[in-house]
Design goal:
Layout lengths: L2 H19 L7 E3 L14 H34 L15 H30 L6 E8 L2 E6 L5 E5 L4 H7 L13 E4 L4 E7 L5 E5 L4 E5 L5 E5 L5 E7 L11 E7 L1 H14 L17
Parallel strand pairs: 1-10, 2-6, 5-11
Antiparallel strand pairs: 2-3, 3-4, 6-9, 7-8, 7-10, 10-11
Helix pairs in contact: 2-3
Bound molecules: copper (II) ion (CU).
The site of copper (II) ion has 7 residues, from loops.
Keywords: Copper, Electron transport, Membrane, Metal-binding, Respiratory chain, Signal, Translocase, Transmembrane, Transmembrane helix, Transport
Membrane topology: Multi-pass membrane protein
Subcellular location: Cell membrane; Membrane
Length: 286
């Protein structure tokens, strides 16, 4: 056994021990990339389901076009080989063929455009969202503002590697943050995004089918509705400067009860009054 292998095994044992000793995360790690992954992540939102099915349609169209062009090419090489055509043809045009190769691509583009635009508008506008989260890209971290829950703001920064190993060893390197965006499962959440400072950022979570370029002075809208509890990850997808690669996006999807408790905790920390149902509140806590 060579030294490198011993070190590798030791490393695995140490990281397994750390993983065991590290604080267990309440939700499972769901939306992370896997080794040798070549395709999309599994769809975790209705938008991503539609992105995948559009991708499936495009793949069929692209494959058919490639096979057709390859077949034409092979046929042309064979049919018009010099040995079979000692004297070259003098044909200059063919009206039927020219109309066909103009109209058929137009029809193919229309077939692609209709579901594309339908999906674009579907992903752009939240229908009956339960609440809104305002995402702000900063240099180089994210802030999540919850205006409908008392207007508190959460700052989400990458965990230094030593802290990740101690606190969130299950999260892959460069994806762990101190404070995740927290949302309840099965709830439509409108995401509006902007940026401060002098650069754009990209709030992108592949498994959610969301990729919002956030721009200073502008608000962009999208929405998510995640079925399953868990941790989901993405990364800034717009080159934004020095620490672009160190501003991961982490979303924790929890049950509605846990979300309500988390909101109360954040409101308390921000010095905001707890949510009170005024009609049912007792005089003592009015
Ligand atoms: Cu960036």
């Amino acid at each position: 056994m060579n030294g490198k292998r011993v070190l590798g095994i030791l490393g695995m044992v140490v990281s397994a021990a750390l993983g065991f000793a590290g604080s267990a995360l309440a939700q499972p790690i769901v939306g992370v990339p896997h080794d040798w992954q070549t395709n999309f992540p599994p769809p975790f939102t209705p938008v991503m389901e539609k992105v995948e099915s559009l991708n499936g349609l495009l793949l069929v169209i692209i494959t058919l076009i490639c096979i057709f062009v390859l077949a034409l090419l092979i046929y042309a090489v064979w049919r018009f080989h010099a040995s079979r055509n000692p004297s070259a043809t003098t044909t200059t045009h063919n009206t039927v063929l020219e109309i066909a190769w103009t109209v058929v691509p137009i029809l193919i583009l229309v077939v692609i455009a209709i579901p594309s635009f339908r999906l674009l508008y579907y992903s752009d506008k939240a229908v009956d969202p339960a609440f809104t989260i305002k995402v702000t890209g900063n240099q180089w971290y994210w802030t999540y503002n919850y205006p409908d829950q008392g207007d508190f703001t959460v700052e989400s920064r990458i965990l230094p590697e030593a802290d990740r190993i101690k606190q969130k060893p299950q999260v892959p390197r460069l994806l762990a943050v101190d404070e995740e965006m927290v949302i309840p499962k099965g709830t439509t959440v409108r995401i509006i995004g902007t940026a401060v400072g002098n650069s754009m950022h990209g709030w992108t979570v592949p498994g959610f089918g969301i990729k919002k370029t956030v721009i200073p002075g502008r608000l962009n809208e999208g929405w998510i509705n995640v079925k399953e509890e868990g941790f989901y990850f993405g990364q800034c997808s717009q080159i934004c400067g020095d620490n672009h690669s160190y501003m991961p996006i982490a979303v924790r999807v929890v049950s509605k009860d846990v979300f309500d408790k988390w909101v109360e905790q954040k409101k308390k920390a921000a010095g905001l009054a707890p949510a009170t149902d005024f009609a049912s509140a007792t005089p003592a806590n009015r």
